[in-house]
Amino acid sequence: AAALADRRREVARESEEVLASAAWAEELDRIETAALGGPWRETPAGREPAWHAVSHGLDSWWWDLTAAWQDLAALSPHQRHRVRITAKKLRYLTELTADLYADREGERASSSAGFKEVQDHLGEMQDRVAGAALVRDHGFRPASLDAAADAAALTRVVAVACRLESHPPYWRARSE
Questions:
Q1: What is the 3-state secondary structure (H, E, C) of 62-75?
Q2: Which of 116, 104, 102, 96 is nearest to 164 (CA)?
């Protein structure tokens, strides 16, 4: 444990050195220059407002998520975990792009909260699966998984999914 703590401190120090370096500052400047004035700005996509491009990305994640949770009860634990990861990514994307949809903040916050609920409920199930695997990996026989708790978590996920699907996604309501 001490060796691991020492290694973590060393990696943190190395990371801080990289972030404080002139090379890192130059790379960030290069990226900023390209983002603000690169030749891509002259393409048709470069003339679109940012929210337009982000909306297409959100749609892609949304369709992946809604397709994945359609038959949630029939999915394997691994597949449910993938749904959880997709919900998490969509949640983060809605939070990171909130400024682009300031006019829809209430709806955006509600959607982000819904994605977090999906993430949390599926995470609860994943924790039981991972715990049982850990017990098995150490040569013991795990207690049976709590089917009632999994059923309750699935019911909560389905309720959140229905709530989210009952309204068009907030990013489609933009009218600029």
A1: HHHHHHHCCCHHHC
A2: 116
Closest among 58, 52, 123, 45 to 91, alpha carbons compared: 58
Structure tokens at 85: 């990861």
> Are the beta carbons of 80 and 126 closer than 8 angstroms?
yes
What is the Rg, in whole angstroms, of the alpha carbon atoms belonging to the chain?
Answer: 21
Rounded to 10°, the helix 147-165/105-137 angle is 160
Q: What is the pTM (predicted TM-score) of this model?
A: 0.71
What whole-number distance in Å separates Cα of residue 175 and Cα of residue 76? Answer: 40
Cα three-residue angle 12-16-17, rounded to 5 degrees: 120
Distance of CA 162 to the CA centre of its chain: 19
Mean pLDDT is lowest, of 15-24, 27-36, 38-47, 131-140, for 38-47
